[in-house]
Amino acid sequence: MSNNDILFCRKAVVNQASATVAYYILHPKTSTDTHDSLFLSSLFVDVNITEITQQKTIYIKTSLDELQVLPLQNNIHAVFFLEATELTQANLEILSDLRLQGHVLGISNPSPSDFSVEFFNIFTHVHFSLSRMPIDEVIARLDAPLLELKTVWINRVETAEQYSVLQDRFPMGQFSGDFIHKMTSVKGKRILAYQAILIDLLVELKKPEISLKRLAECIERDPTLTYRIIKLTHSVMYRSHFNVSNAQRAIEIIGIRDLIKWVSLVMLGSVSGKPACLFTMALSRACFCSNVSALLFPKLDGAFLVGLFSYLPSFLDEELGVLLKDLPLEDNIKIALLDLKGNLGSVLKIVKAYEAGQWSKIPFEHLANQEITQETLRELYVKSLKDAREMGAF
After folding, report:
1. What domains are defined for the chain?
2. Which end of the chain has the lower number of beta carbons within 10 A, N or C?
3. Pick from 101, 114, 57: which is nearest to 81 by CA?
4. What is the pTM of this model?
């Protein structure tokens, strides 16, 4: 594996209000992998870091040895977390030097009784993982006076119930984990109206003769949707110089092929009660699926929708099978979503494995036959973050 073939993904870290305050950078890390020592330098040198951070803080777990050889990064705000079990009181001088150089340090899973007050004063952040200890133990450790002034980050929060407990206990805390996908919302009339519009549009698009007028009538049932579709025609993606005043003219500019994509984005973006990062995650996955599919299966359509609709359960709080039952989608899209089968299913499987940091599940040997390397996949991932940011602005 070359320096460029180092994989990573980002995970949102949110505050009590579910707003994204930082990104946690997940990367392969094993004690026997000699290339891990190259990860940080590769990340900051070979990757467009601004596309990853989007002006937010990044959290990186690392080792003391790795951090000592890393030059200070003045263009980003990064917090480097060191595992408490890998530190001793004898490291105090080295840690002090790193702080003097300008590094911002955090300590992971510490026991307050293990280190001195002077030692803990080196760290501005403290991190606990619920995969390492139960929530009651985390709360008990954070009650210690030594940690009460630290910025708290709790990872591997799996359920909405855990998140609720931690929100109440640590109102200034920061949290990450699968709970982001599982938060419940109160669905209003608007999202139900969008679902009905989406179904009607899909029905119209399956007809032998597609009527732009009937498509426009579907969209014009909702003023907000109409406004955003018309507004889209003036974005950098379409660059229309015409005065577009109705949905039918907007459809002519956008094109029938992209219509469902944009209507679906408006629908998901209108769901209340969800953290903003969930929409970004769904859009990033859709772009990632589209980019991977373009290389593997250049003539295949539907990858964007597969990626986007794979997030439907997280937005609408229903099983995917129930949600897809009423949507007249192409069979290959439904099979990909429900069974991860077919070409689109294989794309979604690769993308989900990458996003989860389960890189060992990605068939790199098979992908190499199509000249897709680890570096290629990493670049597609970063590109998807950029594409999602641009699309989300419309």
Report:
1. 9-182 (3.20.20.450), 189-269 (no CATH), 276-392 (no CATH)
2. N
3. 57
4. 0.86
